[in-house]
Specification:
Blueprint lengths: L1 H21 L6 E6 L7 H16 L4 E6 L7 H10 L4 E5 L22 H9 L1 H8 L6 E16 L14 E4 L3 H9 L3 E4 L5 H7 L4 E4 L1 H6 L8 E17 H5 L3 H35 L3 E3 L4 H7 L1 H11 L1 H8 L3
Parallel strand pairs: 1-2, 1-3, 5-6, 8-9
Antiparallel strand pairs: 3-8, 4-7, 4-8
Helix pairs in contact: 2-10, 6-12, 12-13
Bound molecules: (2R,3R)-2,3,4-trihydroxybutanoic acid.
Length: about 325
């Protein structure tokens, strides 16, 4: 009797075991995300955090493959790939965004934001959140506003203390029409190009200078090809975490929440790294040989932009600019 029971138990166990083996492994989806900067950067910590959070919160059902230093293309190409769906995600500055979502280019107007707290409050508040919706008809789900930082001027020719010192400098700019229009008003000769080409262009002297936040200047080691840095802080550069809209729409409601929560954690890491860089980068760049003008009369640079500002008020509406500038 006992042996029959044991045989039944063994049979039952073997059926149960084969059942588990046959159960389909939980489907695993891998998505790619890219940035133009190296891993050791404010963008690198952002996408690494995003990848970790998505994988953890979906128990590995979604894996995020991270690519750095323009490995999948420059920012404009990556944004295009996300729009087409050949790449699921990218974390990019708003540099190339006007070519895809012109409604958000108001954010690229120089001297629009007072400081980091103001910029973050606007982007995280109703104005910024409403702008994220503008990406959706263009094929993107904008998961969150990130941050690139306040941009400063560097060049290899001379110290820049006042706007007139910029006159005649050949400066690389982002492929951003608002920036190009403003910098021309400074008397700069603008040369728009992807960030992936900037180091070589500076090294070869194709351009005299460029402008970028301290975090980018440090991460890209631009002190190796630039002598002078002026803390003009002339424009705040937002970043944005973009996902292909169709890929996002395919997610379950629970997983949509996961991706949005992971994006929030990514932006926290991005901003924390920038806060850290802002404390240490100037001393570090000086130690590496850059001559730094820290005290820049920003009012003079803002005044030099008056002609461009007259046009920006027409383009975007004075009230809309003031709504952002006066946001508390
Ligand atoms: O997004 O193109 C630029 O100057 C950007 O600041 C850089 O790619 C980081």
């Amino acid at each position: 009797m006992k042996s029959i029971r044991l045989k039944h138990l063994a049979l039952a166990l073997s059926i149960f075991a084969s059942g588990i083996a046959a159960a389909p492994a939980m489907a695993e989806t891998t998505m790619r995300i890219s940035i133009t900067l190296p891993k050791n950067s404010h963008y690198g910590v952002a996408i690494d955090t995003f990848a970790t959070e998505v994988e953890k919160r979906t128990n590995g059902r979604y894996k995020i493959q991270t690519f750095y230093s323009s490995a999948l293309g420059a920012e404009r190409e990556s944004v295009e790939s996300v729009q087409l769906g050949t790449q699921a995600l990218t974390f990019t500055s708003t540099g190339p965004i006007p070519n895809f979502v012109p409604e958000v280019k108001i954010l690229d107007v120089p001297f629009l934001f007072r400081d980091y707290a103001h910029a973050r409050a606007v982007l995280d508040g109703p104005i910024g959140q409403e702008m994220l919706q503008k990406f959706e008809p263009k094929g993107f789900k904008a998961l969150a506003w990130g941050e690139n930082g306040f941009r400063h001027m560097t060049n290899s020719k001379r110290l820049v203390n006042a706007p007139e010192d910029l006159k005649g400098l050949k400066m690389r700019t982002m492929e951003n029409p608002v920036h190009i229009q403003a910098y021309k008003t400074f008397g700069i000769i603008p040369t728009p190009m992807a960030f992936s080409e900037v180091f070589t262009a500076l090294q070869q002297g194709t351009v005299d200078g460029q402008e970028n936040p301290l975090s980018v200047i440090s991460a890209a080691k631009l002190e190796q090809v630039q002598k002078y840095l002026s803390l003009t802080g002339h424009v705040y550069s937002p970043a944005v975490l973009l996902m292909n809209k169709a890929d996002y729409d395919k997610l379950s409601d629970a997983d949509k929440k996961v991706f949005l929560a992971a994006a929030k954690e990514a932006v926290k890491a991005d901003r924390a790294r920038i806060d850290q860089d802002e404390k240490t980068a100037v001393a570090d760049l000086r130690a590496k040989g850059m001559q730094v003008v820290e005290k820049v009369d920003k009012a003079k640079f803002r005044a030099a932009l008056t002609p461009a500002y007259a046009d920006f008020e027409k383009q975007f509406g004075k009230a809309n600019l003031e709504k952002i500038q006066n946001y508390k």
